[in-house]
């Protein structure tokens, strides 16, 4: 297992999507596949779909944790990328899932983890368009 000490939160910058959509978007950019390790759904899977409460907050796996991601330049080797589906609005179910996922990751890795929003690591980004301190509070 690679040494991991950083969690980086992102958003999809779309009002809909899931792991498969992001995988397709990333492949269209020339990447080998989805760059994130986890995706947290918001209940809208397709651009024309209606909200599905049963899908809101679902955590999907992307790249395996043993593999480096492709989500933050220069820090992929020792980080985990988590993407929230959304642009500027994130659901309560998604935020509860952040807390649950962080518990799961901490239990599995049993190490100290820093939590950052992508914009804190790249001043050209606004992603994930949510206050990083809120994410850190949820990650405890």
Please tell me the overall pLDDT.
95
Q: If helices are DSSP runs of H or I spanning 4 or more residues, what is the number of helices?
A: 4
CATH topology value: Lysozyme-like
State the helicity in percent bands: 25-40%
- The assigned CATH architecture is 3-Layer(aba) Sandwich
Helix and strand composition category: alpha/beta
* Number of DSSP E strands: 5
- Overall 3D form: globular
**The CATH homologous superfamily:** Peptidoglycan recognition protein-like
Main β sheet profile = 5 strands, mixed
Radius of gyration from CA coordinates? 14 Å
For the record, the count of structural domains works out to 1
Characterise the protein shown here.
This protein is of the alpha/beta class and 140 residues long. The chain has a single domain (6-138), classed as Lysozyme-like, CATH 3.40.80.10. 28% of the residues lie in helices and 19% in strands. It has 4 helices and 5 strands; from the N terminus they run βαβββαβαα. It has helices at residues 19-28, 92-109, 118-121, 132-138; strands at 6-11, 38-42, 56-61, 79-84, 114-117. The chain has a 5-stranded mixed sheet. The chain starts with 5 loop residues before the first strand and ends with a helix.
């Amino acid at each position: 297992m690679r040494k991991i000490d950083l969690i980086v939160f992102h958003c999809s910058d779309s009002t809909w999507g899931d792991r498969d959509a992001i995988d397709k978007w990333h492949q269209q950019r020339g990447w080998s596949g989805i760059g994130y390790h986890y995706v947290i759904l918001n209940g809208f899977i397709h651009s024309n779909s209606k909200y599905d409460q049963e899908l809101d907050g679902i955590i999907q796996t992307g790249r395996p944790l043993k593999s480096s991601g492709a989500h933050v330049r220069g820090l992929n080797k020792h980080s985990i990328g988590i993407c929230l589906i959304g642009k500027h609005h994130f659901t309560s179910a998604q935020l509860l899932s952040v807390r649950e996922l962080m518990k799961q990751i901490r239990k599995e890795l049993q190490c100290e983890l820093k939590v950052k929003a992508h914009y804190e690591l790249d001043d050209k980004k606004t992603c994930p368009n949510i206050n990083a301190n809120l994410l850190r509070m949820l990650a405890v």
